[in-house]
Every structure is written in C-alpha cells, then in structure tokens.
Amino acid sequence: MHCFYIEPPVDGVAALKKDEAKHAARVLRLKPGDIVCAMDGAGGRWDAEIERVDADGVAVRLHEALQDNEPPVRVTVYQGIPKAEKLDFIAQKLTELGAAALIPVRMERCVVKLDERDSKKRRERLERVALEAAKQCQRARAAEIGEPVTWKQALEAMRRHDLVLVPWEDARGWRMKDAYADHPEAVDIGIVIGPEGGMSEDEVRAMQDIDALTVTLGPRILRTETAAVVSAALAMQFWGDL
Predict the structure, then answer these.
(1) What class is the 3-65 domain?
(2) Which residues contact 42 (CB under 8 A, 6 or more apart)?
(3) On the chain, which terminus has fewer CB atoms closer than 10 Å, C or N?
C-alpha cells in the first residue's frame, strides 16, 4: 500500500502535501477510489481513499485509524559525526527499526567538521531521509533528528536516560543481553556510537562516571554505521518489539 503525508484533516478529509500529491498523481497515477495509507507525521496513520485528483492537488478521505506501531522503549542514538553518506544510512535504518532520535555528536576523533551552515543543511537532509524511511516502513513517526551537539552537551543529555549503553571495541564480556538482564525495566535508553576513529578513553571514562554501561558487540570491530544499526536492533530486540 502506498503511504503519503497529509495536511491537517478537516471533517475527515485531508490534502496530500504538495510533493506527495505530485508523486501520487503524476508518477503513480492514482485515481479516486484507490486505497492508500495517510500519515500526519505526528503519530497518526489511517486507511484512506483518494477522493479527488485535480490541478489543485490530491485529497483523501480518512477511514479507519491504524494501530500505533511505535515501540514500547524510547531509544536515542548519540552518533559521533561520520561522513555524510554514513549518517544518511544511519538515519534511514534507525527510523526503520523504531529509534526515537538521532543526535549527531562532535567527538574528539571525528574527522568531519561542521560549521553552523553545514549543520543546518545536514539536519534538513537527515530529516528528509528519516521522513522517507518512515513512509516506506509505514511507521507513524520518523526518528527525530537533533542538531549536532558538543561532547559536553551530549554528556549532559545522557544523564536524563534510564540507561545509557556504550558499545566499545575494548569492552570485554558484558553484552547487550547482560545489560537487559540487569535493567529490564528501562524504557528510555541512550546508545552512544563513536565516529570512524572510535571514542577516546577520556570520553569512555566520562560516560562511565555517569553510570553508562560499556558493552561489547562481539570479537569483530564493526564500522560506525554497522555498530549504530546493530546496537539499535539489539535494544529493540531486548527492550522493544522486534
């Protein structure tokens, strides 16, 4: 079923957003009577029927509200800023998996340096990637994309989570399932992933000082984008709905 983002509905009828309407009418050539999935981007999803296709756009009539498909755990990934294409991949896959937020972090070993203009453009791009991913997997919400933050800001934000997990190549013996066994009640989890160059020992020690748990993802060293996706998937397996 094709999914589209809609404007706020009025009396059960909603217009597709401009770009969505173009895609529905000109590319997919949908017609009145076709059934689609309508999404408001804020948690609402409906079965909908196309009611009108004309020069003014595309309108749908909303029918049955679809079941909420957000996971029972809120996962926020703090990602040491990697190269652009890797961050796009991470935003896409985290949205598909059900992660709540992606926060790019300026870590000590980040190769990529972003100024204010670059940060704004990157965030806008990542938001588009996340929205498209949410539409593709029929998720009611896209992952929230945060502004790039400093290491100090990220460390302060981590204090607000029930549990912070730090996949680290030098961790030994303590795995995600062990963290779950000790903290099964956690419903708000932060996961910290280093950039291409990894995390410094000072950064890891700073997180351990606020009771973050270092965990191993196995005996092989994973790329940063692989580690982000694997970590989110494991968290969703143990605390979530996978």
Answers:
(1) mainly beta
(2) 141
(3) N
**What residues pair up with 79 in beta bridges, in sequence order?**
104, 193
152/168 Cα distance (integer angstroms)? 19
Number of other CB atoms surrounding residue 3 within 10 Å: 17
According to the model, what pLDDT value does residue 29 have? Answer: 94
Nearest to 70 by CA among 147, 4, 134, 158: 134
Question: Do the first three CATH levels of 3-65 and 74-238 match, i.e. the same topology?
Answer: no
Q: Which two tokens stand for residue 237?
A: 């397996």
Closest CA to 191 of 101, 110, 112: 101
Weakly modelled stretches of the chain, pLDDT under 50: none
Instruction: Report the C-alpha gap between 19 and 4 in whole angstroms.
Output: 10
Domain boundaries, the chain: 3-65, 74-238
Tokens of 192: 């910290």
Fold entry, domain 74-238: Alpha/beta knot (3.40.1280)
Closest among 63, 24, 37, 31 to 50, alpha carbons compared: 31
Compute the distance between CA of residue 129 and CA of residue 200 in angstroms, rounded to an integer.
29
pLDDT at 172: 87
